[in-house]
Design goal:
alpha+beta
Length: about 120
């Protein structure tokens, strides 16, 4: 069931909200959240170290894998970007499969587009 006002499923709205929150709280370029096959969520921001650079979505996927997730139901990223980066889609596809929905939201949390990890 989706929210009548936004057309977004409540669980998808939740991961967008979580992604937006981690971005703001940590002061990073992007925030991301993924929901695994059991409904658990993993939230991460951009990692920019001298020796390690990961997008927020790559970090969230890595956290899910490190925690034992076997698949993904959905992923969300909050970013200034106009499209989801190919490397981000690949990370989601690796764990969730090609049909996994990836929601791209603006900095205000409004959903811009949903694409498949494909």
């Amino acid at each position: 069931m989706s929210d009548a006002a936004t057309g977004i499923h409540p669980e998808d709205k939740k991961i967008i909200t979580l992604a937006r929150s981690v971005r703001a709280r940590n002061g990073v370029a992007e925030g991301a959240a993924v929901r695994d096959e059991t409904g658990r969520t993993y939230v991460a921001g951009t990692v920019e170290l001298e020796s390690l650079r990961l997008s927020a979505l790559q970090t969230a996927v890595a956290m899910a894998v490190a925690s034992g997730a076997k698949g993904l139901e959905a992923a969300a990223v909050v970013s200034k970007a106009e499209e989801v980066a190919a490397a981000d889609l690949a990370a989601v596809r690796d764990l969730g499969g090609p049909g996994t929905p990836v929601l791209l939201a603006g900095l205000d949390g409004s959903l811009r587009v949903t694409v498949e990890a494909g």
